[in-house]
Amino acid sequence: MTSTVVIDKAAPTRQVKYGSMSRDRTWALRWSYFFLTLFAIFSLVPPLYMLITSLKSSAEISAATNPWWVFHPTLSNYAELLTSNQYMRFFLNSAMVSVFVVTITMLISVPAAFALSRMRFWGSATLATGVFLTYLIPDTLLFLPLFKMFAVFHDWTGIQLINRWYVLLLVYPTLTVPFCTWIMIGYFASIPKELDEAAIIDGASWFQTLTRIFIPVALPGLIAATIFAFTVSWAQFLYPLVFTTSTDQLVLPVGIITTLIKGDVFNWGQIMTGALLGAAPPLIIYAFLMDYYIAGLTAGATKG
Amino acid sequence: MADVTLRKVIKRYDEVEAVRGIDLDIADHEFVVLVGPSGCGKSTTLRMIAGLEDITDGDIMIGGDVVNDVPPKDRDIAMVFQNYALYPHMTVAENMSFGLRLKHYPKAEIKSRVTEAARMLDITDLIDRKPKQLSGGQRQRVAMGRAIVRNPKVFLFDEPLSNLDAKLRVQMRIEIKKVHQKVRTTTVYVTHDQVEAMTLADRVVVMNHGRIEQIGTPNELYHHPATRFVAGFIGSPAMNFLPCRLEDAGGQTNIRLTDRIAFPLPPARAARYQNIPRNEKLLLGLRPEHIAEAKGYPEPGVEPFEAVLDVTEPMGMETLIYFTLEGAQICGRVNPNAGARDGEPLRLAVDLNNMHLLNEGTGVVL
Question: Residue B72 falls within a domain, yes or no?
Answer without folding.
Answer: yes
